[in-house]
Amino acid sequence: MSDIILEAKNIRKYFPIKKGFFMREVGQVKAVEDVDFIVRRGETLGLVGESGCGKSTLGRTLIRLYEPTKGEITFDGKDFLKLKGSELRQKRRDIQMIFQDPYSSLDPRMTVGQVIEQPFIIHGLLQKRERELQVKQLLELVGLKSSHINRYPHEFSGGQRQRIAIARAIALNPKLIICDEPVSALDVSIQAQILNLLKDLQKRLNLTYIFISHDLSVIEHVCDRIAVMYLGRIVELTTREELFANPQHPYTQALLSSIPTIGTGKKKMARVLSGEIPSPINPPSGCTFHPRCPQAFAICPKVIPVLEGPADHIKACHLYTKENSTTPKELL
Amino acid sequence: MNPVVQVKDLETTFFLKSGPFKAVNRISYEINQGETLGIVGESGCGKSVTSFSLMKLIEKPGMVTNGEFLLNGRNILTLKDREIEDVRGGQMAMIFQEPMTALNPVLTIGYQMDEQIKKHLRLSDQDSRDRAIEMLQLVGIPSAKERYAAYPHQLSGGMRQRAMIAMALSCNPKFLIADEPTTALDVTIQAQILELFQSLQEKMNMTVQFITHDLGVISEVSDKMMVMYGGQTCEMGPTQDIINSPAHPYTAALILSRPQHGHRVERLRTIEGSVPAPHELPKGCPFANRCPNVLADCWTIKPPRLPITGKPGRTLACFNPL
After folding, report:
1. Would you call B156 and A276 a contact, using CB atoms and an 8 Å cutoff?
2. What is the model's pTM?
3. Residue A161 CB coordination number (10 Å)
């Protein structure tokens, strides 16, 4: 069995913008642009970035909720994008998703038992009695009571609902779970409960996570390796220790210094970045970060930087490419 | 010198079908000139209801049922509707969490600003327009003249929040309530807005009440803080002092349950259970059912908020502190 569970190559996802009576295509939202990465068995890979950076679209594309415009996904040794019909359904059991909003991701007309047994029904597994037994075990596993089985989602708090969503995601014993902002909608004290639960389950069930979040403190807590995204591209990818100790891309540096920290005292906030995130419909030329980058120089608006560097710490920035490091940096 | 803001025994009750529910239960505090009070707590703790009560924005079935709010010595809560209109937006203003719902979508930014400026500063059309554009420039909105004529949906989230700050500050308020002003924003935009906010506060010597659920933000912007739970004050005092040595078990749990940058732990401390529903709140301390330090008395007697000996400026409502 290979150490790599998922490999994404040149993933691209564009959404068409249609206008007018004939719904002519007038442009494209370039949500994900040429993204490459691998996920190793048992690890947690973090995808972090601000709103509109494409992290959620990427997550959904990996599970084929969106069909990618271009690219290849190898999941567990199989070409995931070529799979069809029963083969696809079979493989999909191994890859599950937890969504951000536990209020909209659970059907309000289903009891908790029905919600959690859905995966078994869809995949035609187990008899009714066995299913009920499984559901009860799953409820206990995620820290709820098996007596909750006949209650409806509205009877639960946000944190408990997220537990139900987690029970549904682990029902079929998946190998990989994509967690899309699983704690962002929850209060701080409840966030901690869910983060601990996810960690416990990972150990117990040998799970691999792709963890999507905009919250760097949460990402730092749960992830082994982290990919920083900006406007549809990965701009830096490295281990947690490296990223926080030695961030190299100017965007990562800005992101890290924007985190408000507890206990450092009232201070004058420093302006780390000016300007706003550009629109992915018409992204800036060259390095898409150059209009906001404090260190941009002549080449940045012209050439798109590629992800490169030592294998455990790659970044897409002209500051670190060989030719540029020798030429004097002519500031814009 | 008297504090600019004095809140005494404020109580706001919602008369629901299931019975009356005290969303804010007798809280008191003071804020001095130029000072920032941070109010922190989880959803449902009453931090927003407190602010809405001070602005007299509580609507049926809710009602302020007790207490007073003195702004420079004048009781705001007893003012008539006409009188409050002169104060609101003028001497005191508020910034809301979600600018898209706080701004009127069918009026231009400029119209909404003019309306307020004309009323409170009694300026002519031309002067109020100039004032509005000046404010938009002050909060860092590029090409302010064009944005003056824009509708709220034509601005991005960060720009809308800036426009709302410009609007709130346009009549030189003495007292500003900021209710989760950066929660809906991305971190890099949040850093920009907080920086702007601090420099304007300093320039105008404003008194600020800053509400958030984010301890990191509170820690960076406020002088003193108040921790709320179940409509009551758990503890209050100088921000850094509380963060470095919390006395209330709830404050401590809140601090430890947050993953902290640079202090990685294998497991986070959690607060078991969740915030009880309004009618399920314990009779005594509202935190009793989740508290690791709970005593028999906590269930039945409400702990009074008393000064902590040896720690100047700090008060605490707990029978069994850390």
Report:
1. yes
2. 0.86
3. 22
